[in-house]
Write a structure and sequence with these properties.
The protein has about 140 residues and is an alpha/beta fold. About 35% of the residues lie in helices and about 15% in strands. The chain is globular and about 40 Å long.
Length: about 140
């Protein structure tokens, strides 16, 4: 069975090689560069087996209307925090949500204790094999 994940990351082009080991294992990776793009893809969360979300992500990059729910995320320090809260409420623990962050403890920093976060992965010094091993565990695809 093919596994698919959604990666919401505004520095995607900088970090894209980190997920190369997953692609080589046949994992399908969809990505969004903004919270708005992530919202639009995450509304169809049932097609994904894992969500990988960066805390620091821009609200949008294109012009056009923004749903009110997404606009509310501007009240957070980072739009990704609002996105994570919304996704956790939508998904309700049915698929793993992993945070990728430069913050040492984003769950504590942004008071995300009440949300079902499967894991937090630090960006600093991150190596592709470590990221792949962690994500494969949540995808049920152990090495």
């Amino acid at each position: 069975m093919n596994k698919n994940m959604l990666w919401i990351e505004d520095d995607y082009y900088h970090y894209q090689n980190l997920l190369r080991p997953l692609e080589l294992k046949g994992i399908g990776i969809s990505y969004a560069l903004t919270a708005l793009e992530g919202y639009n893809l995450a509304k169809k969360w049932k097609q994904f087996d894992l969500l990988l979300i960066d805390i620091i992500v821009r609200l949008k990059r294109e012009s056009g209307p923004i749903p009110d729910i997404v606009l509310e995320w501007n009240q957070e320090k980072h739009a990704g925090v609002g996105l994570i809260k919304w996704i956790c409420q939508e998904v309700k623990g049915k698929i793993p949500i992993v945070i990728l962050s430069i913050y040492d403890d984003p769950v504590e920093e942004f008071n995300l204790h009440a949300y079902e976060i499967a894991d937090v992965i630090q960006k600093r010094g991150l190596h592709s094999t470590i990221l792949a091993e962690t994500l494969l565990k949540y995808l049920g695809e152990e090495n």
